[in-house]
Write a structure and sequence with these properties.
Layout lengths: L1 H7 L8 H29 L7 H5 L37 E7 L11 E7 L3 H9 L18 E6 L7 E6 L4 E3 L4 E3 L3 H13 L12
Antiparallel strand pairs: 1-2, 1-3, 3-4, 4-5, 5-6
Helix pairs in contact: 2-4, 2-5, 4-5
Length: 210
């Protein structure tokens, strides 16, 4: 019976330990940001005039505020049906590009995105962070879903297989036009920033403010 089940349902591809470490670090970055913020609130409530150095050193900073190209994002819309089987993106990505929306856009205008950074090696660490989030509950919609703050553009050996994942911070949603994941949507962003730093990218150390 075990052999029959194995033939029908093969084991899933294992996630490399290095990518698991990136995901764990991304979640730890989020946890540290929450702890630092809570400590600052407590000290302010006690009437502290100057925060201790350990709080200021842990203050979250926008990671790509002073870096990144001004080139337009490769894609500005999620491509439906590119990543099936319940995955936001398949493994095997050759690069991952982070795009951020242009701040200060007029209300109602089409949202434009610019490139903030690209990673080549270990792009699958970003993919693993995306697919580690749980699926959104059916019918759990959000009126903010049309205004993503970030795009993660994943390229593959077949250039026609580019996957665009929208990051909706207001809704806590990640979507590619077909599959929707929910939860701590900053985890994939932190994973991207971790890989970007490992590859020599010059950004502020974590925790990060997205």
């Amino acid at each position: 019976m075990k052999e029959l089940l194995s033939a029908v349902m093969p084991d899933l591809e294992a996630v490399p330990d290095r990518h698991l470490r990136v995901i764990r670090r991304a979640r730890e970055i989020r946890r540290r940001r929450v702890v630092a913020g809570a400590a600052a609130v407590v000290l302010l409530a006690l009437g502290a005039v100057a925060l201790p150095r350990w709080i200021s050193s842990g203050e979250a900073k926008e990671p790509f505020a002073a870096v990144g190209a001004s080139a337009p994002c490769p894609r500005t819309q999620a491509q439906p049906g590119r990543a099936g089987d319940g995955l936001l993106a398949p493994r095997g990505a050759t690069s991952a590009t982070l795009c951020a929306h242009q701040r200060g856009e007029p209300i109602g205008s089409e949202r434009e995105f610019v490139v903030r950074g690209t990673v080549g090696n270990d792009a699958d660490a970003v993919v693993d962070a995306l697919d580690s989030l749980p699926a959104a509950k059916p019918g759990d919609n959000c009126f903010l879903s049309g205004r993503p703050q970030y795009l993660l553009v994943l390229d593959y050996p077949d250039r026609a297989a580019t996957v665009v994942v929208e990051v909706h911070q207001g809704c806590g949603r990640l979507l590619n036009g077909k599959v929707v994941r929910a939860g701590d949507v900053e985890d994939p962003l932190n994973a991207f920033a971790e890989v970007f730093r490992e590859q020599g990218g010059e950004i502020a150390p974590p925790p990060w403010k997205w």
